[in-house]
Design brief:
The structure is a single chain. This protein has nine helices and twelve strands. With 272 residues, it is α/β, with parallel strands linked by helices. It has a single domain, classed as Rossmann fold. The strands form three sheets. Strands 1-2-12-11-8-3-4 form a seven-stranded mixed sheet, with helices on both faces. Strands 5-10-9 form a three-stranded antiparallel sheet. β11, α7 and β12 form a beta-alpha-beta unit. The chain is globular, with a radius of gyration of 18 Å. The chain binds the ligand O=C1O[C@H](COP(=O)(O)O)[C@@H](O)[C@H](O)[C@H]1O. Belongs to the glucosamine/galactosamine-6-phosphate isomerase family. 6-phosphogluconolactonase subfamily. InterPro entries: 6-phosphogluconolactonase_DevB (IPR005900), 6PGL (IPR039104), Glc/Gal-6P_isomerase (IPR006148), NagB/RpiA_transferase-like (IPR037171). GO terms for molecular function: 6-phosphogluconolactonase activity. It holds the Pfam family Glucosamine_iso.
């Protein structure tokens, strides 16, 4: 029962029956945005998360995308990164490099990873400095509203606790409004030391896509999207609310199963 729904204020829901169809829809969406950005700005500035999302992007390395995407124009950043060596299995950079970036012709100088020899605090400062240079050069666009970077696309995953990037429920990092990149040394999910884009940066992007799969995330997803009881805890995923940009959720059936839109679609089908 694949379908798309536009919600009142939580963006567009794209729900697929299986992971293969979800992956196909996701890479088609990324390829389209890349084409539009390259046409309009001459570059495509994309920020990746880690986790299960990266495995779903694998089709970008295959035909037709390996040939049709203008890889030379891509600039790749990380929405969040674990402060570990780039060769460590926990590194979001390594995950993307091994499964995607090593298989497509992106210029190494366009891959903007963190300096893994620094402390979490210094790595965040250093990454924000690098990002400021990219904004100054307009490799990354700028928001007219708040001077924040305006990425062409920010790709997020969501944990079963509703975290996005390395922004965890009730964590002080959620309140950061001045910095573009902040750090944490007490992540509830290992490893503890991380850097992360802050909410103002995420919400300034032209496009934000959140990719969520699996039944273990269904309840957090409901709390992030549906109209919920007023005393429901405010999850980081619910704070993703692009100011002027587009928000799209790529979901599989198990993740979407508790959403109102899904239940209505199911009962419509039973009646049909
Ligand atoms: O720790 C992290 O988790 C989230 C979610 O990962 P998933 O495997 O449950 O999809 C990820 O988006 C984030 O980048 C990562 O650092």
């Amino acid at each position: 029962m694949a379908f798309t729904r536009i919600t009142k204020d939580r963006g567009k829901l794209r729900i697929q029956d299986n992971l293969d169809d979800l992956a196909t829809e996701l890479v088609e969406y990324i390829a389209e945005l890349s084409e539009v950005s390259v046409k309009e700005r001459g570059v495509f500035a994309i920020a990746l998360s880690g986790g299960s999302l990266i495995g779903l992007m694998g089709k970008l390395c295959q035909a037709p995308y390996n040939k049709t995407v203008d890889w030379a124009k891509w600039h790749i950043f990380w929405v969040d990164e674990r402060v570990v060596s780039k060769s460590h299995t926990d590194s979001n950079y390594k995950l993307a490099k091994d499964s995607l970036l090593s298989k497509v012709p992106v210029a190494p100088s366009h891959i903007h990873s963190i300096n893994d020899s620094l402390s979490a605090e210094d790595a965040a400062t250093d990454y924000e400095f690098a990002l400021r240079q990219m904004v100054k050069a307009r490799t990354v666009g700028v928001s007219q509203l708040n001077d924040c970077p305006k990425f062409d696309l920010i790709l997020l995953g969501m944990g079963p606790d509703g975290h996005v990037a390395s922004l965890f429920p009730n964590h002080i990092a959620l309140e950061e409004r001045d910095e573009w990149v902040t750090f944490l040394t007490d992540s509830p999910k290992p490893p503890p030391e991380r850097i992360t884009f802050t909410l103002p940066v995420i919400n300034s992007a032209s496009n934000v896509a959140v990719v969520v799969t699996g039944g273990s995330k269904a309840e957090a997803l409901r709390m992030a999207i549906d109209d919920v009881e007023p005393d429901t805890p405010l999850l980081p995923a619910r704070m993703v609310q692009p100011t002027t940009g587009n928000l799209v959720w790529f979901l599989d059936n198990p993740a979407a199963s508790k959403l109102e839109a899904f239940r209505f679609a199911e009962s419509d089908q039973l009646l049909a």
